[in-house]
Amino acid sequence: MTASSVVPANLERFPDLHPALDSQSAVAEANRCLFCYDAPCTAACPTHIDVPRFIRKIGSGNLRGSALTILDANILGLSCSRVCPVDVLCEGSCVMHRYNKKPIEIGRLQRYAIEHGKASIACPAPGDAALNVACVGGGPASLSCAAELRRHGARVTVFDNRPLPGGLNTYGVAEYKLRPTDSLREVEMIRAMGVEFRQAEIGGAIPLSQLEAEFDFIFIGVGLGAMDRLGIPGDQLPGVIDALRFIERYKTQPSFAPGRTVIVIGGGNTAIDAANAAVRLGAQDVHLFYRRTPNEMPAFPFEYDHAKIEGVRFHWLAKPIAVVEVAGRAAAVRFANTRLTGPAGDGRQTIEVIPDSEYEVACDTVIPALGQSRLTSTLHLEINGSSVAVDRPTGRTSNPKYYAGGDCVNGGREVVDAVADGKRAALGMLSNGMAKHG
Amino acid sequence: MADLSSTFAGIRSPNPFWLASGPPTNCGEQIQRAFEAGWGGAVWKTLGDPIVNVSSRYSSVDWNGQRMMGLNNIELITDRPLETNLREITEVKKRFPQHAVIASIMVDSNREAWHTIVKRCEDAGADGLELNFGCPHGMSERGMGSAVGQVPDYACMITEWVKEVARTPVLVKLTPNVTDIRMVARAAKRAGADALSAINTINSITGIDLDTLTPRPNVGGMSSHGGYCGPAVKPIALHLIQQIAADPQAVLPLSGIGGISGWREAAEFILLGCGTVQVCTAAMHHGYRIVEDMIDGLSNWMDDKGFRTIEDFRGLSVPKITEWKHLDLNYKIVARINRETCIGCDLCYIACWDGAHQCIHFDARPPAGITVTPVSRPEALRATGGPTPPARIPHVDETECVGCNLCWLVCPVENCISMAKIDTGAPPQSWAQRTEA
Predict the structure, then answer these.
(1) Statement to judge: residues A110 and A186 lie in one domain
(2) Residues A7-27, mean pLDDT to the nearest whole number
(3) Is B166 found in the same domain as B205?
(4) What is the ipTM of this complex?
């Protein structure tokens, strides 16, 4: 499989974080798997891929069967093999840990199986009585929902407001984990299953009422909204760009460069992705500021370790006070030192600012990575906290015509969680539809 | 320090490790290098009338990522001129007078032909003769090799011809491709053979190329059955050795062959009565240098066990094999699982349920809920490592356990499952005793 990228220079700047396995090492690694009974890795996967089964098929040389085993549980098995935090999922639960051995490299084996398995999924043509479903949003939740519905003979249309479907898989994942071309390859596989894709703004060009009239069910997989602003003076200046827009831009615009000094604000995985990318894009100094300590940082430990190796410098207990303007652009960030003041209600340490502790750090680009806002206000569905409320096993919302899944339901987790949500919702609609049609 | 020197049917060698007749003993230059590496003896690649070999001669069976668990060949006897081989035998013996050089021989079933080759080999300086009655491919189609070894009368007749003129010890190499190896062994002994070597290779087809549908090795689109050897055949070879060693009408000094690749296998063959062992596949795989650890390992093991010479432990395991009907029916063992070291793979559970006696159980497992990726730090920490969840640790119902060993065999963790002896209080009783009573 030849590597390609929307921005060709990214192939060199962002080589694969975990290189592909060749066939001999894949078979050797597959043969290390113990083939556990009722395996913990399968239980730990939100989509419950039968991991020992697909690995055994790699060992036996049945690569098409292996790929189909994966895709049967998780239609986005390729992107998940690249982006899943396997250390806290399948590989984290591998029994080898308890035997002082390296866990099986499930993620890399999964990528190998799908890239070499040449699997295609045959779907029955939709009959006259087939369910007709609209999936709103073109990200992992909708893609998974659409694929599952097609496999059961339903008619599905995916609506996305962007030029390319795939959602964050196409626009928002660090390039060394997943390239847009890989995400689009999965979209093409799902299109080949008979799913129709339309670019349209739902609620804009097409009102929800029109979808309600045209479709039996509507799946909401719209993800989250724009990233939160810093909420401090200067946070809208040129030179301030939130992490998701930053990632999207370097993945799609060949000439994009962040300047010499970059400040990233936030302690999550997206903050780390942005900081690493800034290094790869040529920034000399990349500083990540977080208002608590490494112990409270929500980023996975392996992401933190990776950023340290990339050369990102971490600054703890620092809260941004203002973005400083020079000549109409962001030129520095003013921080104040903080201290932890004991656990808050949710167990996370609260902080207070230490008086007279302010300092400025000069920069060319400021990248806030504070989390995303919710998009749910226009939907007229019951909201739980700030997410769409659903019946978890079926994805059904307060309005029986609507189902939902992915980040807009779970508040922002991993691709694999969105895939699991989409699949559950598809099965929920199918059993509901079955009851309806008798 | 153990003394590994060997006297086998009158043939002396510095140690019991001989190279078996085959590609590693094709010429004098090779055998001299082998002796320099430490081999105690070598059985020259079979001498006989001129033949022509095919190209593409070996094929193998790989297992679980390891190469050459079993090897198959369709190569015939030596394709070098007899005069050259004989001259080199003389040269090798001159340079290595303390090492054993055995001439493996095979000619047409004709008294004259056998008399001639025996005399020429002995004149060249061979310390002994090994009659190749075992080669199962090619030569057997011409009435030689295993075609002789499969018919006790032929084996007896040719051995008698050889013994009429031989001045050196005569070994008869047996084929395993018979229903009862003792019949040919007895025939050889009746004819006056001085020793037996076993086993030769086993008839085999190693596999088929699933693209071309041609079995391996592929000789221009066709294949032929060959002779199987290597680690895979050791258990078969050990059994056949034991059959001969336990049969007074067949037993002679034994040179053990079949899947020996290290000192451990060598010790096993000697414990079943062999005075020397012969190695081929392992030397083909890794070179003559493997003999260093065979000597070193066997010597260290003998020191640990207090054996000074090979004779001190040769045959000690022969009396420990008996007929099934004499085994103690009241000997009882049960499986015990160490909860501290169990990693929760649960292979023992499924093996017991599907392949054995349904006596390994779990406590009730919690119902599966919806799984999500841990995003908070404490969630993530819980997801990796940590002790085996109690619900994944199986336990054995000892009242139902029959002590079959299967769970212990499949467990990947050393010493996690052990087989514990249970005192039933009943006196030993065998099937023979029970049915007598």
Answers:
(1) no
(2) 89
(3) yes
(4) 0.83
